[in-house]
Amino acid sequence: MSRPRTWQPDMRGWWRRDPAYRQYLLREATSLAIGAYVLVLLAGLGCLLLGAQAWAAWCRWVLSPPGLVLQAVVFAAAVLHAVSWFRLMPLTLPPLGPPGRRVADRTLHVGAWAASLICSAGVLGWLVWGA
Amino acid sequence: MSRRLRRSHEPPFWLLFGAGGLLAALILPAVVLFTGLIAPLSGRCGDSGLLEHARMLSLLSTPIARLACAGFIALLAWHACHRIYHLCHDLGLRGGAGLRWACYGTAALVSVIGLVLVMGLPHP
To answer: N or C: less crowded end of chain B, CB within 10 Å?
Structure first.
């Protein structure tokens, strides 16, 4: 018996249909930049382990034009990721607060950005003054 | 499908993806700002300034700092690989189980390598 033939929508080029689809795609594509940066950090960790010479080579690469361009792209992607992550948080978080009452979206957004500011300051403080 | 309802693989991966995404949203811009702008401005790279070899080693000398560093790299890897897997699917790439293994396998590999490297760092 052959499989029943059902209607299948043509999904080719679906991102051309709506700007919101392209925004979605851009948001998802930030993962490519973040993934690349993870590899850069992992390489840095390896070079740190190998010794001062390897570490200096890694530092030179990070400062080279390709390294700086990559980090500029990663920074833009990270900011875009943060903006979209926090914007979607009222939808992705389980309901907070007492039953029947929702925490206002605005409270969540302000709280998330405040947390980001505090955590970023903490991390930067540790990286700059930690040793 | 077996008689028992099959459980989805998704929740553990989504949890790692969510943790990595939150971590990235909270501090990734600051970390990139450090490696790409603040550290290079602080002195000749690798020899002096904030990225000096001995300084980085002493920064990563405590177990907590090492665990945090490895955890940061691992969670970001799980986050990125999960999204790349779904991005492939959205773009019409039918990779099936092979693609899933490739994506999540990469994340697992990065996590393990990061942990091994961080544990092997010499003490200053």
So the answer is: N
> Which tens digit of pLDDT belongs to each residue from A25-58?
999 999 999 999 999 999 999 999 999 999 999 9
Residue A107 near residue B54 (C-beta atoms within 8 A)? no
CB < 8 Å & 24+ apart, contacts of A25-28: A25/B87, A25/B90, A26/A80, A27/A80, A27/A81, A27/A84, A28/B83, A28/B86, A28/B87, A28/B90
Measured between beta carbons, the chain A residues lying within 8 angstroms of B34 are 123-124, 127-128
User: What is the architecture, at CATH level 2, of domain A17-93?
Assistant: Up-down Bundle (1.20)
CA angle B117-B119-B36, nearest 5°? 50
User: Domain map of chain A by residue range?
Assistant: 17-93
Helix (H, G, I), strand (E, B) or coil at A27: helix
Ordered by where they begin, the domains of chain B are: 12-120 (1.20.1300.10)
Which residue from B minimizes the CA distance to A56? B46
Q: What does pLDDT average to over chain A?
A: 92
